[in-house]
Amino acid sequence: MRVLTSLVLALFFLTASAQKKIAFVSGQVIDENENPLAKVSVVVLGKTTGIVTNDSGFFRIKVTAAKSIALVFSNIGYAEKQKNFYLSDNEEERITVRLQRDGKTLMTVVVTNDRERKELGLTKINPKNAIVLPSTTGGIEGLIKILVGSNNELTSQYNVRGGNYDENLIYLNDFEIFRPYLVRSGQQEGLSFINPELARNVNFYNGGFQAKYGDKISSVLDIQYKKPKTFGGSAYISLLEQGMHLEGSAKKEKLTYLVGVRNKSNRNLLSSQQTQGSYIPSSTDIQGYLTYKLNEKWQLEILGNFSATKFTLIPQSAQKTTSVFSPLFTANLGLDIFFNGQEKDGYNTSLIGLTAVHQPNKKVQIKWMLSHFENKENENFDIGSTYLFGDRNFDNTSSTYGQIVNPLGAGFYQNYGRNKLDISVWNAGIKGSIDKGKHFIQFGNSIEQTKITDKLFEWDYQDSAGYSLPVTNNNLSSFLNSSANLTIQKYSGYVQDNINFINSKRDISLQGGVRYNYNSLNKELLISPRAQVSVKPSWKKDMVFKLAAGIYDQPPFYRELRRYDGSLNKGIKSQKSYQVVAGMDYNFISGERPFRITAEAYYKNLQDVIPYDIDNVRIRYSGENNAKAYAYGVETRLYGELVKDAESWLSIGLMRSKENIVGDHYYKYLNAAGEPITSKTHDRIPVDSIRQDVGWVRRPTDRLITVGLFLQDYLSTNKNFKVHLNMIYGSNMPYNIPNSTRYRNALIIDPYLRVDIGFSALFLSEKNKRRSHSPFKDFENIWASFEVFNLIDRPNTISYQLIKDFSNTVYSIPNRLTPRLVNFKIVGRF
Q1: Full-prediction pTM beyond 0.70?
Q2: Residue % of the chain over a pLDDT of 70
Q3: CATH code of 54's domain
Q4: In angstroms, rounded to a whole number, what is the distance separating the alpha carbons of residues 223 and 213?
Q5: Do 413 and 348 lie in a common domain?
């Protein structure tokens, strides 16, 4: 009987056990920067025991199936997170859990972010902010322009501390990035090279950067793409841009992959431009990043990019208006233009980079790198136009409302161009680091070959009463016909050491290095020492003081060689900049929220400067080292969270940048009475002439005041409704009359002011709140956004068009940027 009872009980328990249904939840726990978190507690809600994540942040836990359960993820210093599930029998769901640092720990994060605080000019940019930024260009550069200022929302180009865009370095996974060179306007520009969906770390240096970075004189943008551990991706669509990306790993994480595809068309933006017509802009790129771990000491990496941009314009007409105010009269002057012809441009760039990473031990790492960059550009335009210039009638009760009622000038002009540029850059290099405790030594060396094939053929014809400026027998206002076929060898390298001195009274970091550069074009050997020091006193107030000094040289690449007449100056020297920067960094708590203030003062002395003019985004150099210049200023930024978990910042800059072109002068003519007269009449009136030296003038990028604001907020009762706002203000800038000595700084571009705002709503919440059989179960979330560009509808000016009337009086007609526009965007992540 006892035996029978025992058998019955055993059978009962076995049957009950067999009927119990189980499922599994697995995945990875990461922080807000997508770094894996180890030893995170994973517990089923209501139970006291669970598991912890491994060193890579991975976990796998058994749960009850066919029943609603919840997992609780917790770790010291992070906000606890709960995920809900309803799983079928034997089902396994893979998830990615992101833990946010809690409010108390966030203060510690700000305080202990030593690298950013100890390096002068370094700003770490969160790529997630670039994704939500309401901007016509978007991307990482859109955030940078809030930091340093901008005057054109149609381009990803930016200017830093008085420098132009050619003076900025861009690195992607340690490979230097180049942009198309023939682009004349923001309308022609395609996608930014950087895909923010693929970015992991973004560091921006606006001056005083280390010796390990290359040979340019303004700034460095250093981007590192992700090495994903689990499968994921995103897809988005808007009126301006569409794209998607996939990421993941295979072969037990030995292989990681990251690929992104994007397409952009500015047709909706350009349809509102002053020049009406058929705009057909398109830009597409595909980027990929693969890594493969051969063993514990060797890893291979491949970075690839291909971008194709096309721009077609068939202009029809344009209406431009400006107001003239003087003590004698006030007038609304208009310019009506009627076009024929078209423009058709193409810009194709590609990059392939191979890296072999050797790490013989934990303290030594060496990178062997090989890359090839290729750029093929074509410009083809033949556009003729007739114009009528005069007073425009703004009386809306009149039958001639909007028309030119008092003609002051009329004429015809034609622009013709057939330009072609091919650039090929091969680079082989080595980079390494040695960690010796207090010393962190970095070194590198590279060999680069650049081949440039260039054919430039363009001319302008202008005809009106007294308007033509003949420079050839064909009565052309300008004529360029030149070609170039260059092969340039460049050798460069660096060595630097980071040293830490820590005691009870202060924390001192010293960084010193030197780099060299030699190129076969002008056979210059450049030595550039650079050093900086940071000191953190043991005060109650959390402050860091920094000082940096160094020499920054910029060898000529392509545009700097070409003079205004199209000829090449192959003996041109490198531009040189001697920089001193001093700064401070202060962390504090206000209203139980962390805030950070940074401030930097800088001075740049520039020698062997190559003067240039900027028209829209086109930079044209004089091709001569015939100027000296300087720039000085102060920049301060406030970082913080006006509301919890929503990063915002305010940036304010004051700057002055001027140049003195050697020998720049003109002659002032005086009649017999000593009164000034125009040069055109001196052959009929007895005159004397006085030489006038131009002296110091504002550089094309000189701007006294720059203000940028990036603000994030959400409803206090629901974080699923968010708002993102960015504002840029820049005071006036000079505009130079091309090829004119006397009229340098003759015109002023009005202050630039732009406000963009975006409203976002969460359509589908995180997938842990959806049932496993939901058709959207693989999506983490889906957001929809409504964006308003140029909220205040300000008519910002980018350049001027010069027009002469029948009496040869010159008028400047502003070329305007985009008015108020709207955009819709949907983003899904899985």
Answers
A1: yes
A2: 88
A3: 2.60.40.1120
A4: 13
A5: yes
